[in-house]
Amino acid sequence: SSSRECVYPVPVEKVTITRSELEELRHKVDLYERALQDTVPEAISSAVPDATRRHELLSLLGRSDPYQATGGLAASEAARTPLSSVQPGVIAVTTAADGQVHLVRAPSELPPPQQPDLQRQYQSLPQVQFQDTPFPQLAAPPIVQVHHHRQDDEVGVSTEGRLLHDPDGHARFLGETSGATFLDYLKEFMTTVLPLAYQNLRPGSDGSAFLSSLGCYQTYDSRPLHDRDVDPFWFPPRPDMEYMLSELRHFLQDGNGNWPSGGIYWWGDLSSAPILPPMERDTPLVRLSKCRHLAFYHTAFGVVSQATATPPQDLTVDCHLSEYYFSRARLLLGNPLDITRFTGNEVSTLTLMGFYLIEMNRRDAAYMCVSNAMHISIMHGAHRVWADESGKRVFWTLYVLDRYLSCLMGRPPTIMDDAIRLQLPCDAPGMPPADGLKAHVQLSRISGHIVCNTYRVSPWDGNTGPVRNLEEAIRLLDEWNLNLPPSLQLSSNGLSDDPACCLLHMSYNQLIILTIRPIFFAAVKKSFAERLVTRQCSLRSHPQLHQLKRCAAAANHNIRLARQILALNHPRKLLQAGLHFIFNAAICLMLRELVVEDEAAEPRDKKALCQDLDFVIARFEDESRIGSNYGRDCATVLRDLRVLVGRLRTPVDTSLEPLRSNAMPPQQSTTTTYDPIENRTAADIGQQWPEKLTSEALQQPILVEQGHILYDELVSWIDGDWQSYSGYLI
């Protein structure tokens, strides 16, 4: 009847996703279910005394109650994994009426993400906390016991990178090749093994900050640059402009024509200062139109000011002079999204702006700027043909920056190689040799292959496995190195008098490190797990021992090349690319100490390593002196990681006296008088590293036996060879 109350079904919100996403989510749920079925039932049996409630919880996992099956004996066995050791954020399993399994977790302690759906996709598994850990504020990484399903793992292991939060709480996607993502994996590893290695080691001022930053990256590159109140029509005196352009050409282009390589970048004609148009009677809009092309020069002045910045002797002097030039350039250039105003001529300005943003450690802003410049180039057909050699070289410089940022951020490149028909740089009258830029382009192509295929950020060859991808990347790098022209080859001592050639080989070594890094990290985990489980070391029989040695050799070589560049360019500092390369080299050399047996190292090798690490940290301290958060943060990470590695390497079953006698020689560093890192005491700074490490109370590492909550995880590190980490999410 009309008086009957209508009962409508509860509306269900529906979403539409691609089939590939659905299959991937189903596979992840299957992995999580298997992990839960391996770990949670015993904990429930131990911690839930009520038999009815216990049976209900276990039935959700498809398990029978061990109390009903085997009585109290099974319960006593299950008690080895107490539920109290699991944090409240543990995953719970619920079953809906349609039979689908749903995973429910407690809210993350991270700041609220900007994109909740995307953040949920990359949110990490819940963490397990040890009650007896000496670092109560640090949680162990998730324990997913799926190493028995290796074939499935090779398909399902995620290669999607991570959403990491900066100190302001902004989330940014950083893929597998990103150093920040690798550091996050390293934090998980350190958080797991450090409490196991030394149970009563107290958390000092060094190391704990690095570990507690899991899920974050310690830079400020999401912050906008300061908008300075400037007059865009003001220009320095002509002699000053000529001097700055000469500096830019010498430092960042072709060495004012003196470099045999011709340089590895090309920004445009820097031989003469611009001629300023008459503007006295013009309106502001007319002035902007007349001076728009001069934005390139303001950007060039900003790059020079930043690249040659030194710690101010007078604190009243503004050390951010480059930001004033860059603000003028932005005002003159206008909105880069206004396609009606932009032509191919502005591409060089945007390219140089992207380089400036890289030097200012505004990587996301540089990523957007370079991407925009590339799209403008494509819109005008520059990827197919360009009339003059100078414009062609500008496009290839833009291509190099695009590939560099793709590798730096772990993101797909803006344009694929197959879409580019433009000829490579070639020699032309009145221009420097093209060898350097041409080789840089070819190396950048290999970089794109490594990012897209070896790390599978955006694979275009899906039929080859991880072994073939790695071997192919190494083959391409070796082939590139063998085919270099004489002007780009290093001398017998592994160095060159051409700074551009040195930086090019640093980039080559960085790609070697990046390609081998998954194997290297797997060897670190395997070596340490063997110490805790089997008390043996199988490094000498490692199937990829040659590659491990090559990775360390590339790291050593990069630090030598960095010293050479500083000597050639004195008093100029390293570019951001050089700093990035030596940062990764230092991490590689520190991790090598966890793999190589201590007895095999000569005292002079230990001294050289100590001096190399001092050199790298000093370079970032120099950066921090001119107000760089990037320099301060990198120095903090390297100092903390150095202490953590030293703790993990300290021998066991020995007294402190023999340990001190075998310790590394005292540092010869001259940087301990200045420490830009906050919250460091003078005692910590002045104390030698070996003495500081051995002054801690040492204890025999525990023997992890079957039944320990981390036993299966550690065994998986030992049993699984490097091919198991096909996704390179180690």
TrEMBL record:
Polar residues bias (residue ranges): 664-674
Domain Xylanolytic transcriptional activator regulatory: 366-431
Source taxonomy: Eukaryota, Fungi, Dikarya, Ascomycota, Pezizomycotina
Organism for this UniProt entry: Fusarium piperis
Chain spans, region Disordered: 656-678
Keywords for this protein: Nucleus
Pfam families in alphabetical order: Fungal_trans
GO molecular function: DNA binding; DNA-binding transcription factor activity; zinc ion binding
Domain of life of the source: Eukaryota
Coiled-coil residue spans: none
Record keyword S-adenosyl-L-methionine present: no
GO biological process, one term: DNA-templated transcription
Name under which the protein is recorded: Xylanolytic transcriptional activator regulatory domain-containing protein
The keyword Iron belongs to this UniProt entry's keyword annotation: no
